[in-house]
Design brief:
There is one protein chain. The protein is α/β, with parallel strands linked by helices. It contains ten helices and 34 strands. The chain has a seven-stranded mixed β-sheet, sandwiched between helices. Helix 3 (about 65-75) links the parallel strand 4 and strand 5 (about 80-85). The chain is globular. It binds guanosine-5'-diphosphate-alpha-D-mannose. Guanosine-5'-diphosphate-alpha-D-mannose (GDD) binds near residues 13, 91, 115 and 181. Keywords: GTP-binding, Nucleotide-binding, Nucleotidyltransferase, Transferase.
């Protein structure tokens, strides 16, 4: 029997996702029409003999999360539970804290997935790879190739090219180590807890020797990457399965638009029913577009490529939307234009208004380029990025909003360019 754990972090995480993460926990933000986490769950339920999915994080249980869990259990007919850490215990501390829950029912192996990645999740391939490579109790990291410069933003893996054993692991190195990076998707077996447990014991002993502080939590805060992988590298225990399929991190709101594009494209093979067709009396669709069945769209609107339209959205005559996510309840009035933007829940864009951002796509000429999840400011200036309207924002008619972030509940009375509107 197999299980899967999804590390969903908590409210202090996902800061680059503000103001969108004010309204909904980042792992539930819709990407290609469904909550980010649902893509992980859909991949897990396809794995034969996978019996339970555990979400581990430090969010207070909340209505959205409960509703999501309830719906997902119903839809996928699988046990999907949320386990709340008492504090941020790190990527290794959380699974160690809940080891009894993970091991109940005696799974022979379990996946651990970072929630903030978008991937084709080649989980069955990882299982097969594990059977063919290394010793029976070895662990597998999913890896992909990045370019030299960007690789340093990730965990970097040096492998034995014949055996794929991980010989050396460095988390976010300051100089180049390897262009194979950690995708944040792992296959473990119960033995991993011995390794995490040894780090926990050592942390505890170290703390006894230190001056007393209120650092009692520190022994439990364990990072898989720095504390476990670095030590396991070169021990014949850790292997890397390199994937050629799509993969990206979802850190910033801009990367959610990019991730949407990747998932919409995958829908051709996995969920063709989620892709809007061009049909008589409907809007003109170019490329891949997701439209929730409750959205009300004027037939003269032109949508796509890479557009996701949420529940109850209204789109008026002559509206143009491209490379954007329109969240539920938004109202795009006649002839407005939305490009490279995220329009927040229940926002209204007036007639003939133009809401536009700058895409932060990876360099299309570099096959290994990843999306740069830029910080908001560079050299004291706001980095040009996608435009984000928080929830319940009103944009008046006939204005331009360019490369701006508008915080929730703002009623703007003019156009803005390169600004954060508080
Ligand atoms: N439950 C729980 N989850 C956590 C915690 N801290 C982080 N997470 C979750 O663990 C994942 C990793 O988060 P970060 O710690 O922010 O790491 P990162 O910068 O994303 O880097 C990791 O992922 C990269 C791939 O996306 C890797 O390349 C890198 O090596 C590392 O594993 C995210 O899904 C985050 O929500 C925690 O204390 N508790």
């Amino acid at each position: 029997m197999l299980k899967a754990v999804i590390l969903i972090g908590g409210p202090q995480k996902g800061t680059r996702f503000r103001p969108l993460s004010f309204e909904v926990p980042k792992p539930l933000f819709p990407v290609a029409g469904v909550p980010m986490l649902q893509h992980h769950i859909e991949a897990c339920v396809k794995v034969p003999n996978l019996k339970e999915i555990l979400l581990i994080g430090f969010y207070q249980p909340n209505e959205e999360l409960n509703r999501f869990l309830f719906n997902a259990q119903q839809e996928f007919k699988m046990s999907i539970r949320y386990l709340q850490e008492f504090a941020a215990l790190g990527t290794g501390g959380g699974i160690y804290h809940f080891r009894d829950q993970i091991l109940s029912g005696s799974p022979e192996a379990f996946f651990v997935l970072n929630a903030d990645v978008c991937s084709a999740f080649p989980l069955t391939e990882m299982l097969n790879f594990q059977k063919e490579h290394g010793e029976p109790s070895s662990f597998v990291i999913l890896g992909t190739t990045a370019n030299r410069k960007q690789s340093m933003n990730y965990g970097c893996i040096v492998e034995n090219e014949q055996t794929n054993e991980v010989l050396h692991y460095v988390e976010k190195p300051s100089t180049f180590v390897s262009d194979i990076i950690n995708c944040g998707i792992y296959l473990f077996n119960p033995e991993i807890f011995q390794h995490i447990g040894a780090v926990f014991q050592k942390n505890q002993q170290d703390m006894l020797l230190e001056e007393p502080t209120n650092g009692w939590q520190r022994a439990e805060a364990i990072r898989l990457e720095q504390d476990i992988f670095t030590a396991l590298a070169g021990q014949g225990k850790l292997y890397v399965y390199k994937t050629l399929s799509f993969w990206s991190q979802i850190k910033s709101a801009g990367s959610a638009i990019y991730a949407s594009r990747l998932y919409l494209n995958q829908y051709h093979t996995t969920h063709s029913e989620r892709l809007a067709p061009n049909k008589e009396g409907g809007p003109k669709i170019t490329g891949n577009v997701y439209i929730h069945p409750t959205a009300n769209i004027d037939p003269t609107a032109v949508l796509g490529p890479n557009v996701s339209i949420g529940t109850g959205v209204t789109i008026g005559a002559g509206v143009r939307v491209r490379e954007s996510i329109i969240l539920h309840g938004a109202n795009l009035q006649d002839q407005c234009c939305v490009l490279n933007s995220i329009v927040g829940w229940d926002s209204t864009i007036g007639k003939w208004a133009r809401v536009e951002g700058t895409p932060s796509d990876p360099n299309p000429n570099d096959p290994f380029a990843k999306i740069d999840s830029e910080t908001l400011f560079r050299d004291g200036k706001l980095t040009p990025s996608i435009t984000i309207l928080g929830c319940n924002v009103t944009i008046p008619s006939e204005v331009i909003i360019l490369n701006s972030i508008v915080l929730p509940h703002k009623d703007l009375n003019r156009g803005f360019k390169n600004q954060i509107i508080l």
